[in-house]
């Protein structure tokens, strides 16, 4: 389902723009549209995390792994 009032992402948007978009609209997935508003694809929170976290993040334990989540 696509909300026509929600601004779309474009293929040219950089990582900071996409991250702010997700934070602003509290999304887990966002559409990527071309100039004619044709759907090209989607970006997910997982896509963002893949680019924001270091490549080896799965190989290390979080520093507070022994602390309960709040």
Q: Which fold name corresponds to the CATH topology of the domain at 1-44?
A: CBS-domain
Can you tell me the overall shape? elongated
Largest sheet: 2 strands, antiparallel
Helix content: 25-40%
CATH class of the domain at 1-44: Alpha Beta
Count, helices: 2
Strand content: 15-25%
Q: What structural category characterises the helix and strand content?
A: alpha+beta
The averaged pLDDT comes out at: 84
Task: Pick out the low-confidence regions.
Answer: none
Query: How are the strands of the largest sheet arranged?
Result: 1-2
Return the string of H and E elements.
Answer: HEEH
The number of strands is: 2
Written description of the protein model:
Pfam families: CBS. It comes from Gordonia jinhuaensis. Keywords: CBS domain. This is CBS domain-containing protein. This protein is an alpha+beta fold and 70 residues long. It has a domain of 44 residues: CBS-domain (Roll). The protein has a two-stranded antiparallel sheet with strand order 1-2. A hairpin with a 5-residue loop joins strand 1 and strand 2. The protein is elongated, with a radius of gyration of 15 Å. The relative contact order is 0.16.
């Amino acid at each position: 389902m696509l909300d026509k009032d929600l601004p779309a992402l474009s293929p040219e948007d950089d990582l900071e723009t996409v991250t702010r978009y997700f934070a602003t609209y509290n999304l887990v997935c966002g559409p990527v549209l071309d100039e004619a508003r044709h759907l090209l694809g989607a970006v997910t929170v997982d896509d963002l995390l893949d680019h924001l976290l270091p490549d080896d993040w799965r190989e290390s334990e979080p520093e507070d792994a022994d602390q309960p989540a709040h």
